[in-house]
Amino acid sequence: MIEVKNLVKKYGNHIAVDHLNFTIEEGKIYGFLGPNGAGKSTTMNIMTGYLGATEGEVLINGHNILKDPEEAKKCIGYLPEIPPLYTDMTVLEYLDFAAELKKIKKKEREEAVEQVVKLAKLYDVQERLIKNLSKGYRQRVGLAQAILGFPEIIILDEPTVGLDPKQIIEIRELIRTLAKNHTVILSSHILAEVQEVCDYVMIISKGKLVASDTPVNLEQLMAGSETVEITTRATQTEVRDILRPVANVEKITTQVNKDNTTGAVIEVKNHADIRESVFMAFAEKKKPLLLLKNTKVSLEDVFLELTQNDAEAEKLETDELEAEESDAVKQEMEEGENEDAGNL
Ligand code: ADP
Ligand code: MG
Known about the structure:
Organism: Hespellia stercorisuis DSM 15480
InterPro entries: AAA+_ATPase, ABC_transporter-like_ATP-bd, P-loop_NTPase
Bound molecules: adenosine-5'-diphosphate, magnesium ion
Largest sheet: 6 strands, mixed
Pfam families: ABC_tran
CATH class of the largest domain: Alpha Beta
GO molecular function, one term: ATP binding
Domain ABC transporter: 2-231
Oligomer: single chain
C-alpha cells in the first residue's frame, strides 16, 4: 500500500532521514515512535508530498508521490504537525474549501463536510471562526480536514499534542473508529500513546528505523534477554559453579561490587521463572543470597535502549546547524512553505 524505499533527507549536511525502508499494509494503525528530532515529521512530510526527498522514493498504491502526485495524494489525508488552517474562515467555510481542494465533486461536498463534522464532533462550533477556537477544537478541525472524503490512508503527525486528557481520549477513540475502514499512520514521542493505540510500532531514532513490530512482539523480542539479578558473598567462580546445573540458564555475567559482594546477571531461556531454583541452588551450598530479582523488559526499556543518546545528538547537531546557517537549509524551508500553500 505504501512503500518507502531508501529515503534520505538532508538539511545542509545534517541528515534528518537516514535511508529509511518500510512498507505499510492495509487496515492497521501504525505508530512512528521516536524522540523529538528523530525525523518523524520530515518522513511524513515526504510521504505526503509536502517535501522532496534528497534520495529514495515513496510509492502510494504504486504511484510515486513526486512523479505522480495527483494520483498518490488522492489516497492520503494528512494532518501535519501544524495544521494549515485559515483562521479567518468559519469551520464550515474552511472544510468546504478543503473539500474543493481535494476535488470532491460540488454536489457531494456538503454531505462529505457534514460527515466529518459529525465524526470530529464539530457540530457546535461549525459556524465559528477558526481563530476563536481552542487548541483542541482546532486540532479536530485539522483532523476533520485530513479525513475529508475518507481517503484510504490517513496520516496524522502528533495528533494529540497540546490537548487535554479528555480531548486526547476523544481523539484516540476517533482514530480507532477510523481504523476500522482505513489505514492510519500516526506519530508520537509518547510511548504509552503508541502502545495503546497502534497495532504496529516503528521506532525511529536519528532518522533511522531501529525497530518495527507489534508492541507485544517488540517486548518479547527483547524478552529473549529476560534476566535475573543476584547479589551474594560467594566468589565469582562459586557463583558460576552453583548456577551451572540450574535449568534454563542461558548466560551468566558476574562482577565484583564495591562492597566486595559478587553481582551476577543471569540471562534466562524459554521465559522460565528460575528464581526458586536459583534460591535453592545457593541455599544448598550455604551461600546466602543478598538480592534476587527478575528484571523483565518492557517496551519502555526497548524504546530507551534503541533511542539512547538521541537527545544529546540532537542538541549537538542543532548547535552545528545554527553555527553554520547553511543556505541550503534556508532554501529548503522556503521550498517547504511554498509547497505547503498548495497542498491540503
Ligand atoms: P520529529 O518530527 O521526529 O521531531 P523532525 O522530522 O521535525 O523530527 O526533524 C528531524 C531533524 O531534522 C531534526 O534534527 C530537526 O532539527 C531537523 N530539521 C527539521 N526540519 C528542518 C528544516 N526545515 N531545516 C533544518 N533542519 C530541520
Ligand atoms: Mg515532529
